[in-house]
Amino acid sequence: MEECYTISISKKQSCLFPTLLRLSIKEVVDIWDVVSAYVLGQMKLDKGVLVPGLGTFAVVHEQINGTEEVYVVRRPVFQLDMDMSCLRELVFPTVMMPGDIKIMPLDYWWLSQTNSLPPDVVRGCVEETILLYSFQLRDRQCPAFAFENIGILSCQDNVLCMQFHCSCVAGLESQDTWVALLLTRLSVSGSRGNNGVATAQEVQVAQAHMFPRHLSPRAIQVLRGLEPHQTRRNIFMFLAENNRRRQEQQRQFCR
Fold this sequence. Notes:
The chain is of the alpha+beta class. The protein has ten helices and seven strands.
């Protein structure tokens, strides 16, 4: 895990977490780093992974109709699958998983070979960590759940969703990375209200951290073919206009 968030376990709850209480913080972190590596490896093979009690990671192929050709962009998705009694007033995005995606269970034997711990200890750590996390959500503590090189499951404004790292998105879609980044960004933004429309501030953040300084001819073709995704098309136009203005300002400054 990229950041370590420690949670105290009361004596009353100790019987529910025998494995976690036996492991050191480093061992717990190492186990989840291996889990993250396994999940990412399966996603690169276009397979999904079910993390019991938490949700499913997968890669979807999203089709964009360009003016001259059809683009198929790969991007990561996460479908939450937790006990609803723990979520209470929290909301989360609805993710539609294509039926042809092969969903793999966690391979505890493979995980145990990687970190030299018995499979039952690895399984216990995973299951108990998720149970402890669900208790935190139930009590409205909402800590972030980080998956190394994948993303962070976090709660903002009562919305629980997976924020995928740019490096994860880029690693899954190397050809049309910026399109995959935008589509992934929109899928997160759309879960926060605003009728699925990303705010100007969100677009500016996306532009600053995810996108190149100019749009290529290939990008323009995709832009023109984004109908009927009008919201996405407007955001592309917003980015293109901002880039044009920046380039104009740079030219004036150099004179």
